[in-house]
Amino acid sequence: METSAGDVPTDTDTDDEAPLGGGGGAAGTCLEGTPDCQDTPMDPDAPVSGPGGEVPPPGPSDEAFPSEAARDQARALLGSPESELAPDVRVARRGEETFALTEDYVLGRITVELDDDGSGTHVVTSATVELPEGPETFTL
Predict the structure, then answer these.
(1) pLDDT of residue 77
(2) pLDDT, position 95
(3) DSSP codes joined into one string, 72-140
(4) How far apart are CA 114 and CA 131, in angstroms?
(5) What is the pLDDT of residue 129?
(6) How many CA atoms lie within 13 A of 11 on its CB side?
(7) For 4, 53, 86, 92, which has the most beta carbons within 10 A of its beta carbon?
(8) Distance CA 128, CA 70 (A)
(9) Is the four-CA dihedral 123, 125, 126, 127 of positive or negative sign?
(10) Whole-prediction pTM value?
(11) Closest CA to 69 of 2, 139, 119, 132
(12) Which tens digit of pLDDT belongs to each residue from 58-77?
């Protein structure tokens, strides 16, 4: 390996030396002797564990999601003024202004669009609720 001014290693590829960073991905990122660093291939079939112990595989929940109640909540927001929206309701559009949203899917989350009702008050004209069977949108 060659060094530049200040003894900083530079990438070389000669017959007698391997290039820096060989191994791909994060290979070789653990400092030798670091006890809490895993620098070996992981077994994809091994159980995953977290702070609370082993994490169960994804599957059907014990309780069915209350889809109809979530639909009712979304419908109830139609015509509501912006000032009365709960903090957990996402606003996707307010008049001509659109807002960036995350692409994660959260069951029961409601995302609304607001339009001016003619008096300067923005009201909900569209409400989309995220359901197990897919998102459903309600409009005025």
Answers:
(1) 98
(2) 97
(3) HHHHHHTT-BGGG--TTSEEEEETTEE--------TT-EEEEEEE-SSS-EEEEEEEE--TT--EEEE-
(4) 21
(5) 97
(6) 4
(7) 92
(8) 10
(9) positive
(10) 0.57
(11) 132
(12) 556 547 899 999 999 999 99
